[in-house]
Amino acid sequence: MTSSTKSQGPPTLGFPKRYGITDPISEDLPNQADFIQTRKLTDCLKSYGVFEDDLELQHREKVVKKLELLFKEWLKEMCVEMNVPELVTEKVGGKVFPFGSYHLGVHSKGADIDALCVGPGFLERKDFFTSFYEKLKAQEEVKGIRAIEKTYVPVIKLNYEGTEIDLTFAQVALKSIPENLNLLDDKMLQNIDKRCARSLNGYRVTEEILSLVPNIYNFRLALRAIKLWAKRRNIYSNMLGFLGGISWAILVARICQVYPNAIASTLVIKFFKVYSMWVWPIPVRLRIVEDYYYNLPFWDPRALSSLRKYSRKKQTGPNSLKRQTFLRSTSMY
Q1: C-beta separation of 143 from 131 below 8 A
Q2: Annotated catalytic, 236?
């Protein structure tokens, strides 16, 4: 899993930086009782088996690395097949970026891995869902593989060495894909296919959330608690009209922004307090929405005015593609 430059260990106190679009509601530091409650919260989460052990985490990392090696190998094979110059073939590269709950560091035991395969612009999308699909299918470690192309975000689903994987694909306007490719660079969205933009958005939103919270450790622990609560009440599902994983993450991230020094137990309490009073036509924003005029879908409240009284909107704000959820409900609880 890609590591963040921020602290992932126990909470660090005192953050002078302002996170989000408003000043904090409170910058109070945690007291002894808060630490005790957070330890109890952690013990409670452990009792429900939400944490993987080190061996399981290492297995996931190995699976992602093996898939990336296969993807890079396939890219070189495609270059040879397409008579791409040898110099370009040698440097074609290729990257696999985990995203979603695994990249956020809040996945549960046995959860699948969402991963984005990024290739050069001279490839065609159909090659990924035909040629690479066949290469994956031929691997002994791969079981239950299927390609689902006619969907909002086309995906290859498979089981690799016992781990469920959802692979999406995006081609960017580059001849080669370097190891240090920055997908948060908005220039990556220029002249890009809308399906590729949607695939890129999964990683970009996940990475952006991690960059917009004051303390990743506190965010992750609080989000694990909220996810467990939502799942046990059967409201963790965007397919059923509730919220999906990334939407819950955005809601928790906003609480982290307005209580930057709070630790997990306090964040969970504030989560329910804040959103029980939220005026839902107002979107939950982690940062200012920007439109880079790349001819991509852009959240516009004027265009959605007819749905406003039925809507809940959550925005990360990293680019013109925004995560939005519309719920035909007047209350979250």
Answers
A1: no
A2: yes
For 74, the domain range is 54-206
Q: Which secondary-structure segment (H or E) carries 173? A: none
Does the annotation mark 101 as catalytic?
Answer: yes
User: Whole-structure pTM over 0.70, yes or no?
Assistant: yes
Integer angstrom CA distances of residue 124 from 17, 173, 186: 43, 12, 22
186 is catalytic: no
> Would residue 28 show up in a list of annotated catalytic residues for this protein?
no
**Short-list 177, 161, 209, 150, CA closest to 65:** 161
Asked if residue 166 belongs to a known ligand binding site, the reply is yes
Q: Which of 34, 102, 227, 311 is catalytic?
A: 227
279 domain residue, yes or no: yes
Both 269 and 140 in one domain: the answer is no
The answer to whether 294 and 312 have CB atoms below 8 angstroms apart is: no
Q: Active site includes 300?
A: no
Q: Confirm whether 127 is a catalytic residue.
A: no
Nearest CA to 69 among 133, 127, 102, 117?
Answer: 117
Residues 251 and 165 in one domain: no
Q: Is 291 annotated as a binding-site member?
A: no
Q: Is 112 annotated as a binding residue?
A: yes
113 marked as part of a ligand binding site: yes
The tens digit of pLDDT for each residue in 3-39 reads: 444 445 555 454 456 788 899 999 999 999 999 999 9
The pLDDT of residue 321: 39
81: pLDDT strictly greater than 50: yes
Q: Say which of 133, 166, 265, 314 is annotated catalytic.
A: 166
Pair type for strands 95-99 and 163-172? unpaired
The reply to whether 112 falls in a domain is yes
